[in-house]
Amino acid sequence: MRKIFYSIFIIFVLSACSQEENIDATEDETPLTTNIEIPSAIFTSEKNNSTIDEEEMKLSIKTYLDSSEELDNAIYPFEEIIDEDEELNKSELEKFNRINKLVKENDENFSNYILNNTLPEGYQEESERISRYITASNEYIQELNEMLEGNFSEIDIESFIDKSGVVNGKEQKKIEEFLDKKKIHTKAFGREY
Which NCBIfam families does the annotation name (predicted)? Predict the structure, then answer.
C-alpha cells in the first residue's frame, strides 16, 4: 500500500512540475507588444475603370495577401492580451487600433480594385473569393474578440454565422488551388515562399 501511495505522490509531483514548465514556455512564446512593428505597406491602387493585365493582377493578389498576413501576425499578440482578459496600455491600444485600421483599409482597397477594374480572364471570380474570404475572416476575428469582451450589443449574430460559411477549409482550399495554378507565391495561409 505504501508503494502505491509513493508512486501516486511521485507522479503527482512530476506532473505538477511538468505543467509549470509548460506555463513558462507558453508565456515566452508570445512576442512582446513593444517589439511589434506595424507593417508599413498595404494594398493600394489608384486605378479605376482600367484593364488590368495578368502580371499586375498576380502582383496585386500577392501584395494583398502578404500584407493581410503581416497585419494578422502584428495584431496577434494584442489579441492574446485581450483574450486573457488583460487590458492594453495606451501605447498598445494605439498600435492595436492602427493595425485594425490598416486591416480594414487593405480589405477595402482590394475590394474596390477588383470591383472597379476589368480583370484578366479567369481572375474575377477567384479574386472576389479571395476578397470575401480575407475580409470575412478579419471581420469574424473582430466580432469574436468583441464577443469575448462581452460586447454582444454591437454584434449581428446572423452576420457572424454567415461569415463562418465563407471562412472555412473548403474555401481556403479553393483559394490555394487557384494560387498554385496561377503560380502566385504568397505568405498567406502559412505558405512561405
Answer: lipo_NDxxF
